[in-house]
Amino acid sequence: MDLKEVAVFVQVVRSGSFTAAARELEMQKSSVSRKVAELEASLGARLLQRTTRTLHLTDEGRIFYEHGQRALAELEEAELALGGMRAEPRGLLRVTAPLSFGFVGPIVAAFLGHYPEVQVEMVCTDRVVDLVEEGFDVAIRAGRLPDTSLIARKLGHSPRFLVASRSYLKGRARPRKPEDLAGHTCLTFGSQHAVWRLASGERSAEVKVEGKLAANDYDLIREAAIAGGGIALVPELGCTGALREGKLERLLPAWTSEETPIHALYPSTRHLAAKVKAFVAFLQARMR
Questions:
Q1: Which range has highest mean pLDDT (9-18, 85-94, 178-187)?
Q2: Can you list the positions of beta strands (E) in 138-245?
Q3: 3-state secondary structure of 157
Q4: In the chain, where does the domain assigned CATH 3.40.190.290 lie?
């Protein structure tokens, strides 16, 4: 069934004639008559009794008109509702981020304070999630992006800092240059034997380090460093709170590791929901 034919039929009944309906719809009278005839043919029922001067609904036409106008009204309400969703951020926002991105929590909480009609479902995993297949609106990802059809918006970058707690440093010689790290217990990512590549302006250094704890989660490494487990090389965004609170101290402040770019990704800019647009803009503003 063609909804255009239904809309024309409903307007003919409301207007009381083909001529008046044609004027309201800005169509030719012959086109209006043809649309109604095509609707009757598709339904296999006569809806209107026509005379030279008047139109009368048949019994079938009366029933169809009652249901048809109600259906069109509901479609108009649905269109208005969608328009409202596009204009004002609201509804469920599904986001995926890496496991070690706990720093996003306060940003999401602030976002929800600004947009009370939005609910956020956050799934943290180091697995590469298929946004379209798994029904996610936004992905936050760190590192260089592979070729992808997703739209990427850069949020910022995060170098890694050398940090340790006062309890670990107490009674130990502080490192004065990168090479001094080799004599310390280090908390490493991935493997207990690691090479830390550091840079300071034009200078660079590679230091082989090792320790008794290796982990694949930077949050765990940071917490182990706070507990006095050793020196850690952790992302800036994951340790600023601990540095500000005095739980960790930064070592060799002139030296950092390679900066890791951070992006927000989403499937398309076409008909982009207001909740997605607002969330990405909020992330960009807060992470800057």
A1: 178-187
A2: 138-142, 151-158, 160-164, 186-189, 193-200, 203-210, 213-215, 231-235
A3: strand
A4: 160-258
